[in-house]
Amino acid sequence: MGELELDQSTVRPGGAARLREQLRAPCLTVVFHPDLSRVGEVAWLSAAQPLALSRASPSFVAPSGGPARPLSSALVSRSPLTLRVTPRGIELEPGSADVTLGGAPLTAPALITGEQVDAGQVLVLGGRVALLLHSAGPRPPEPPPSFGLIGESDVVLALRRRVEQVAKVDVPVLLRGETGSGKDLVARAIAGNGARATGPFVTVNLAAVPSSTAVAELFGHAAGAFTGATARRAGAFARADGGVLFLDEIGDVPLDVQALLLRTLDSGEVQPLGSPSFRVDVRVIAATDADLERKVKEGTFREALLHRLRALTVVVPPLRARREDIGRLFAHALRAELAIAGRLDLLERLSEPSAWLDGATVAALVMEAWPGNVRQLRNVARQAAVIGIDQGVVTPAALELTEQSLEAEPRPGRRVLGDEEVVAALRAHGFRPGETARALGISRTTLYALIERSTVLRKAKDVTEQELAEAHSACSGDVEAMAARLEVSERGLRLRLKELERAGR
């Protein structure tokens, strides 16, 4: 396959990982199966012989080991789909099997290039089992511990190895990664597997701390130190003495507080407001999704503090860099939500012919952009659980795929779309999100976010009940046609109609 290029937001491989990179090979990873315990299993393709993919073959195996077994789903055809590795890429011969590739029926032979395999392509068998065709390096002989980090992709294996290394060294750590990528879980993994594992773990989200109280929050204060300070309060450093202090969103800390942080990191001394200084023994782990180097150039972040914090750096990969893990993460979150609701019985119904969740829906999730990363995926799993509990059917349109806190600035090379262009595209495609997103060259996630942020488009919640009734009558209840007539998002309209139905209106 084509060489996988890791961008600045992924874990950059070292020696062993670089060797795995050179040995990458195509494989199929189960991203959805009616038996959720099968999600994450892998079958490898070989240039030596074609692979016949059906209900009975090939054998898939979990990365952690265990019995090799075929898909064995009665919902998957016995008629095989043939995959053949060639110098040009992967050739597919569908036969008579019910297969979709990228959401479209596969009815004729097709070629998937090496670059397309590296990007990941989703096959859905019988509408129920979803497989990601991608490339991956060989499993290391002694994989690192999981540290509670879900996933077996190359970048997660590299992340787990990095956590194993960093946990052993008692110096400050800087975690870098996009919002929602799991930096807090990585911080806990480092803290829980180092020399301070038995000590306290204290978290401060600096983005949520007002600048006026940041000094008191971090360093504490004496009684009477300022108006309203009726009692002595220990700061975060004091509470973390002997353990680890996790400073989340370090890029948001005010400049004057940065100077105090730097002094404490250099001297090990804390100066509470209105009290003498004292020494603490704390390991600091900081995290940010901000470009601290740019902040240094702009004069909003102290260069000395940046150098002090990044004694060790760990880069947490975004979800789009580990698509083979999405099915496993989604299944884990879905099971957790159903367990909380006491409805694990719903998992048994996934094998029914008309199940409430199918492979086609999860296939769509696997190829989403996920600007909110793992946090956003957990929210989507929660919504899927609610729909299932409510005896509904989970579809991509029914799931909330927007993230309120999208990137403030586009990445280099990404187009900035204005309201007029978005509205024109929506009208040209009848307010159908899939067609509109493809026409604009963006994901549905991004389109939904643009709709939410638009100052021109009205939202489905703003449509009056009279307008809804008139549109329902004129369109004979066709929700897609109603959305086009009302010029609102079909997804938002379906949610609005469901809300009115629950309210008995």
How would you explain this protein's 3D organization?
34% of the residues lie in helices and 15% in strands. β14 (269-270) and β15 form a beta hairpin. The protein has helices spanning 15-22, 114-119, 154-167, 183-192, 214-219, 236-239, 255-267, 292-298, 303-309, 326-340, 359-366, 373-389, 419-428, 433-440, 444-453, 465-474, 479-486, 490-502; strands at 25-32, 42-44, 51-53, 81-86, 89-93, 99-101, 104-105, 110-113, 121-125, 129-136, 173-176, 201-205, 244-248, 269-270, 278-279, 283-288, 312-315. It is built from 18 helices and 17 strands. It is α+β, with helices and mostly antiparallel strands and 505 residues long. Residues 1-21 and 402-415 have low confidence and may be disordered.
List descriptors.
505 residues; alpha+beta; 6-stranded antiparallel β-sheet; 18 helices; disordered N terminus
Write down the Rg: 26 Å
Q: How helix-rich are the residues, as a percent range?
A: 25-40%
Beta-strand percentage range: 5-15%
The biggest beta sheet reads:
6 strands, antiparallel
In the predicted model, the low-confidence regions spanning at least 5 consecutive residues are 1-21, 402-415
Number of helices: 18
| Computed structural class | alpha+beta
Gap between N and C termini, in Å?
A: 56 Å
DSSP strand count: 17
The global form is: globular
Average predicted confidence as pLDDT: 85
Q: Going across the major beta sheet, what is the strand order?
A: 2-1-10-9-6-7
Gist of the model:
By secondary structure, the chain is an alpha+beta fold. The protein has 18 helices and 17 strands.
Write the SSE topology.
Layout: H1 15-22, E1 25-32, E2 42-44, E3 51-53, E4 81-86, E5 89-93, E6 99-101, E7 104-105, E8 110-113, H2 114-119, E9 121-125, E10 129-136, H3 154-167, E11 173-176, H4 183-192, E12 201-205, H5 214-219, H6 236-239, E13 244-248, H7 255-267, E14 269-270, E15 278-279, E16 283-288, H8 292-298, H9 303-309, E17 312-315, H10 326-340, H11 359-366, H12 373-389, H13 419-428, H14 433-440, H15 444-453, H16 465-474, H17 479-486, H18 490-502
Helix pairs in contact: 3-4, 10-12, 13-14, 14-15, 16-17
